[in-house]
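Changelog-linked ticket: zinc ion example.
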Amino acid sequence: MPAVDLKSQLTNLVKLQAVDSEIYSLRNEKEVKPQEIKTLEAAYEAKKQGLAELEEKLLDLQKQRTDFELELASKEEATKKLQSQLFSLKTNKEYSTMLQQIQGSKADASVIEDKILQTFEQADKIKNETEQEKLKLEEEEKVFLGQKKIVDDRMKEIDDRLAQLDAQRKQVIPGIDHKILSQYERILSNRDGLAIVTVKDDSCKGCNMLVPPQVINLIKMYERIITCEICNRILYVEE
Ligand SMILES: [Zn+2]
């Protein structure tokens, strides 16, 4: 007679495995959640960046316009100065040279005025784009916060379920022999959260490899723990 009733030990291990399988898959799911939020956040931040670039362009244009306006004022000042000198000139030649300079100065001023007009037009265009971007971004923010909430809610759900499962685990564990439990847990952590598997249609449901009939007989004798020769998981037979 074995020291422990192996059949009921295996039954308890199967119960524990059901709890652990769920814990394992929930932990896996939980592990990728922070990255999901980061990805959503990065996409949203990238869209915000587009708006920031537009706002920067607008500031640049305003700065350019101020520069042009200063340039225009100094051109106008220069024209006035030339005009005031016009009547003090002695010769026709001096007079016509000065007139040419005045015309040149006025032409320069008109080019600058055109540039100023252009900055107004460009600024209007960018302002429109900015307004549209802002509206889009408000929508994007709603979408992002909605997606984030779904992930946050699921995280909370997972934590609540993990607490329940932990309590279930504590109920099953006292019914399992110390040595058997530590063997189970060793396999559990080495074999992707799956330590005990059934044999069905002569094959191991952990690795799907064939289990020889003599091994199946050994399992049914319940004298010792039998493991799969291929994947090392504990084997049991549903009866
Ligand atoms: Zn196997």
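Closing comment: Example verified and attached. The radius of gyration is 41 Å. The CA atoms of residues 21 and 193 lie 6 Å apart.
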